[in-house]
Every structure is written in structure tokens, then in C-alpha cells.
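Structure in, sequence out. Go:
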């Protein structure tokens, strides 16, 4: 019997590549496990940014309504178990290991990726724990992502930005087509953008999905104290502000409210109001300390960095704003940095321990080229965090962003 750590280490070595898009192999294994038609409705969430927050809103609102939810999200911040949440709590090691054992027995000589193992395990755990509704976050793209193996009662597509270009394409139209793959015939799909890629609209028309668009089919208005939502013949006034920080969370929350009302899932206004105030997700404008303020954010592409910069600009401080920053090498590093350039006074860089990490010398060169003030003499997450905190004043701010791996490392040392 393997421990969870042993299972995960073995899975990382099992397949020739960490990413292998396509549904043929995982479909065969799911058929053998008899989990292609689980006894609960599924909500699929795709998009470039906002997926994790949308899942959090869905879980909170559905829980307030009395449903037992299963939520599958990736990647995790600290513990793998975070990926498979049941009624808001991470699945136990034993439950996940039991699922892995079933998958391994069923797969025979079929090789599966780390992500495919996890996706199958999530659905097995949700069946075992008898959830009422499952929320599945797409890992990469949509059309060929393992999550798309299951037909969703409701599909949500958040904002579309440029990311994962090697897999999805280098423009919004190509990327939008991949995300659109989670749509199903005659079923609702809510698009959270006012001007989505035309490929999303075309594909919805082609398969006769019920496309519901922001500004055309629903809308919202917000202020610093309250907000309102209108759509599908319903209006909610004086809604409480979302518990999740950032103006973009109104966009995510409005999309989720629209989706729930467009689906066959019963939801009432009080559950929506309660859910707005209860939603939580780690690593999204997450404040872990005051005086100096320390914010964690997983912004790792230009669109997410622009939203983070807007928040910092809107919520100014009296002191200096310092960044702890690192990012994977397949990201548009320069565009991310340029998005944040005007709101950061000092950049503190550290290299991530991952084959995909941007080498520290490359990061240093790129930021030097942009004329930024940088510091690079750090060898550990604890070292960089303690060092920057040591000379920060109470009215300063520290923003830690750029990669899930960075947020994971900082979270581990700050909570430990």
C-alpha cells in the first residue's frame, strides 16, 4: 500500500510527459470504472483567470442552499488534498489513496498523467461521498482537458487571456475555441466577458448550446458598499459585497449567479446573498498580515497582473510597495512585469525549484532591462520573506505574486 506522497511521486514518473491532452486514454479507464455517468449534476468551469474564484462562489452559494458539494480544483497551494474538496473540506489521504488504487487496477497497461489520475480520483471520491453537485475546474484549455470527459449540466467560461500558448494557441480566438469545448448541446453556458472571442459564439451556435452573455443577457452594477445584478428576468438589489477582494470578483460572482439561475439547480436569493459573504479561496488577493500588509496573489499572466495592479492602485498605502516575485519560464514574463511596473517600488526575486522555472539570471536580466530596482540574493522562501519583512515599515506593503509555486512556498513558511 502506498502513502499519498508515494502515489503522487509514482504518478509523476508514470507518463512520458506531464501534459498529454486528449480524452481517449482516460475515457477507457473511466468506462472500466463505470463513472462516466455519475449520480449528480456537474458544473464545469473554464477560462484563463477567475476559475478558482468562480468555484469558490459556486461552492459557497450551493452550500448555503443546503447542497453537499464536491469541488475539484488545480493546482493546490500547500497540500494535494486541497484539489478534491468535499463539503468544503479537503479529502483525506485514505480516501484519495483508495481512489488511486481503483484507478491503477482499472487502467491495465494504459498510461495516465498526474492530472488524469487526479481527475478520475476526484469523481470517484465524489461518488463515494455521495455529493449532491460536483464542480470541476478545467486544468488546461477545455476541449481536450480530462474534466471535459463528463457532460456538464452547466458550463461557465470566465475571461479569456493569452496563456499556455504552446498548447492552446497564441491568440484569443484559438484559445477561446479550446475553452468552448466544455459546452454541451441544449445546455446553458455563461460567458463572463462582454466581448468574448467570436470562436466561443460560433461554437455555441454550431452545437446549439444556450449561450448567455454578459451585457447582452445579464448585467451588474457595483459601488464601494453594495451592488446589483439583473438577468434572466430576475433582479437582485443591494447585494452584499463579495468576500473575495478585487473589482473583478463582481464579474465572477455575477457570472455564477447567472449560471445557477440558468441551470436546473434550485437556488434562492438568500443562499446567493449568504454565499457571496462566505466564499473563500487561497492565493487570490489573500491578506496574511497587517502592518506591514502582506498580500498573496497567484497572478501569473498579463491579464491577472493587470487586475492585481488595478487593486493596488485603487487601494493605495502611505509607504513603499515591495514585490516578491518569481514565475515559470513559459509565461510572458515581460508583459506580467510591465503590468505591475507602476505599482511596485522594489522587486525581490527568487528562483523556483522546478524544471519550468525562469532562471534567476534570466529574471534579473529582464527586470534590469526594464530599469527596475531589484534584489536577488535569496536562497529560500523563509530567507526572502524574513529579509523583506525585516526592513519594511508598518505602513509598507509586500505583494507576493507570479506563480502558484511561489505562493505555495511562502504559505508553507509563513504558516509553519
Amino acid at each position: 500500500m502506498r502513502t499519498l506522497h508515494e502515489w503522487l511521486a509514482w504518478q509523476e514518473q508514470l507518463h512520458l510527459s506531464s501534459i498529454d491532452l486528449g480524452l481517449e486514454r482516460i475515457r477507457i479507464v473511466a468506462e472500466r470504472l463505470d463513472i462516466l455517468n455519475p449520480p449528480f449534476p456537474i458544473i464545469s468551469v473554464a477560462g484563463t483567470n477567475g476559475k478558482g474564484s468562480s468555484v469558490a462562489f459556486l461552492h459557497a452559494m450551493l452550500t448555503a442552499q443546503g447542497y453537499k458539494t464536491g469541488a475539484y480544483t488545480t493546482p493546490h497551494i500547500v497540500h494535494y488534498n486541497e484539489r478534491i474538496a468535499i463539503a468544503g473540506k479537503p479529502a483525506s489521504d485514505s480516501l484519495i489513496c483508495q481512489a488511486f488504487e481503483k484507478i491503477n487496477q482499472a487502467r491495465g497497461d494504459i498510461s495516465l498523467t498526474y492530472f488524469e489520475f487526479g481527475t478520475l480520483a476526484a469523481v470517484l471520491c465524489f461518488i463515494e461521498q455521495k455529493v449532491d453537485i460536483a464542480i470541476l475546474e478545467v486544468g488546461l484549455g477545455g476541449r481536450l482537458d480530462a474534466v471535459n470527459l463528463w457532460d456538464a449540466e452547466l458550463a461557465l467560461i470566465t475571461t479569456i487571456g493569452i496563456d499556455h500558448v504552446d498548447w492552446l494557441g497564441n491568440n484569443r480566438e484559438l484559445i477561446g475555441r479550446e475553452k468552448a469545448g466544455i459546452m454541451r448541446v441544449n445546455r446553458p453556458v455563461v460567458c463572463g466577458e462582454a466581448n468574448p472571442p467570436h470562436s466561443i459564439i460560433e461554437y455555441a451556435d454550431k452545437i446549439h448550446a444556450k449561450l448567455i452573455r454578459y451585457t447582452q443577457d445579464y448585467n451588474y452594477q457595483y459601488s464601494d458598499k453594495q451592488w446589483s445584478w439583473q438577468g434572466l428576468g430576475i433582479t437582485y438589489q443591494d447585494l452584499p459585497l463579495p468576500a473575495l477582494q478585487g473589482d473583478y470578483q463582481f464579474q465572477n460572482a455575477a457570472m455564477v449567479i447567472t449560471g445557477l439561475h440558468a441551470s436546473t439547480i434550485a437556488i434562492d436569493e438568500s443562499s446567493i446573498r449568504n454565499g457571496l459573504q462566505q466564499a473563500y479561496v487561497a492565493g487570490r488577493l489573500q491578506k496574511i498580515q497587517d502592518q506591514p500588509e502582506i498580500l498573496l496573489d497567484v497572478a501569473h499572466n498579463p491579464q491577472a497582473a493587470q487586475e492585481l495592479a488595478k487593486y493596488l492602485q485603487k487601494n493605495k498605502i502611505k509607504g513603499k510597495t515591495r514585490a516578491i516575485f518569481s514565475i515559470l519560464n513559459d509565461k510572458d514574463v515581460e508583459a506580467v512585469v510591465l503590468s505591475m511596473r507602476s505599482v511596485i517600488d522594489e522587486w525581490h526575486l527568487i528562483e523556483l525549484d522546478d524544471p519550468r522555472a525562469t532562471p534567476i539570471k534570466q529574471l534579473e536580466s529582464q527586470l534590469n532591462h526594464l530599469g527596475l530596482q531589484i534584489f536577488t540574493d535569496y536562497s529560500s522562501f523563509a530567507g526572502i520573506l524574513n529579509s523583506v519583512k525585516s526592513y519594511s515599515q508598518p505602513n509598507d506593503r509586500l505583494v507576493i505574486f507570479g506563480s502558484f509555486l511561489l505562493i505555495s512556498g511562502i504559505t508553507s513558511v509563513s504558516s509553519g
